[in-house]
Amino acid sequence: MTKPYTDEELEEVKVIFRSMPSYAGETIRSSDIPRFTNAKGWPLSDEEIQNGVEYWDKFHDGVVSLEDMIRVCRNIHDTAELTKDRIQACDKDGDGFISREEFENFFRNLVVHDPRLKVSSFENFIQAVDTSNDGLVSVEECGAWIEKCLNQNKHY
Ligand SMILES: [Ca+2]
Ligand SMILES: [Ca+2]
């Protein structure tokens, strides 16, 4: 983590979060994400915001808890950290590896908006990410790959 959020910033996040129309029991609906982003003043494009809404719909049934939001805020300055968090979420069966199905259903959807992380197929993805050459993509390998891509600005 590069730039941790200060207590003041986290307080601000909580206040904005609790002012959302869908706020109930320390959660909001994903439909309030654009409103939240605006209120928070994050310089995100419409596409990025839409991507965020889709992410919460797909991975969390459209429900964002305050805890989740704080985690996102803490990582917002650190794309690699945020993305790793999302890889973990892609590993639906929790075996530590991204299977073809998990790749098709989740991973592709996750990185499609960042050209630095573009992969055209699962085969392509394995080739790029599987550094141990066992034909499996572990969550760790995936994290290391993303970090490398973001650092080198490399296109796949
Ligand atoms: Ca898995
Ligand atoms: Ca491997």
Give the SSE map.
Blueprint: H1 7-18, E1 27-29, H2 33-40, H3 46-60, E2 63-65, H4 66-75, H5 79-90, H6 100-111, H7 122-129, H8 139-152
Antiparallel strand pairs: 1-2
Helix pairs in contact: 1-4, 5-8
Could you please describe the fold and organization of this structure?
- The protein contains eight helices and two strands.
- It is mainly α and 156 residues long.
- The protein folds into two domains: 69 residues, EF-hand (Recoverin, domain 1, Orthogonal Bundle); 74 residues, EF-hand (Recoverin, domain 1).
- The chain binds calcium ion (2 copies).
Portion of residues in beta strands equals under 5%
**SSE pattern:** HEHHEHHHHH
CATH class group of the largest domain = Mainly Alpha
CATH superfamily of the largest domain: EF-hand
Question: Ions, cofactors, ligands: which are bound?
Answer: calcium ion
Radius of gyration: 16 Å
Short description:
By secondary structure, the chain is mainly alpha-helical. Helix content is 58%, strand content 4%. It folds into two domains: 69 residues, EF-hand (Recoverin, domain 1); 74 residues, Recoverin, domain 1.
Based on the model shown, name its key terms.
156 residues; mainly alpha; Recoverin, domain 1; 2 domains; binds calcium ion
